[in-house]
């Protein structure tokens, strides 16, 4: 069984190394190698790695925080191009209650106070299903914090993060941006340049992200001893993943 973690990709070396570190943490927990592929900006691509082992069953975890073009179109296209015979694709990482807990931890680390205005900042999407996922996460975070969390975007979608920060700043309270990004890169830079009083770090290598990815591999049917490192957690918001078999 081959384990493959697929991320977006970035030109920022720190962002690339962060994905590598995350894969290493998952690999240590599963006690098996976890390969990394990227759908944009840099390689290797999923199709390249799948072609390298065409007859070995593979579990692929999309390291994306919502459904969207990369999950619904890019990854299936790479699988088709590879002509791989046996690939199981789990659902994306988000939305998931585990990520809300990570967001709260990042807010606390950054110095958030309950009376601050909070913006959940995502990369953005034009995909309706992915947009629904992002609004779901904002709703869950609002319920957890006990106050309304605004949703804004670093790239695609309205409002843009700088506009949302400017609007909330007039209320006389600190504005805190909760980064709903997996790694460093151009979009995280935009959050830090938004004018907010505080900006959290990306979700990154937080142990909760590692546990979630381990959980995805486990639920896909991979028999692992990872329970020794991370007890398996099950969440009710988990539709079945996609399977591509020939």
UniProtKB/TrEMBL annotation:
<dbReference type="Pfam" id="PF01903">
    <property type="entry name" value="CbiX"/>
</dbReference>
<dbReference type="GO" id="GO:0016829">
    <property type="term" value="F:lyase activity"/>
</dbReference>
<protein>
    <recommendedName>
        <fullName>Cobalamin biosynthesis protein CbiX</fullName>
    </recommendedName>
</protein>
<keyword id="KW-0456">Lyase</keyword>
<keyword id="KW-0479">Metal-binding</keyword>
<dbReference type="InterPro" id="IPR002762">
    <property type="entry name" value="CbiX-like"/>
</dbReference>
<dbReference type="GO" id="GO:0046872">
    <property type="term" value="F:metal ion binding"/>
</dbReference>
<dbReference type="InterPro" id="IPR050963">
    <property type="entry name" value="Sirohydro_Cobaltochel/CbiX"/>
</dbReference>
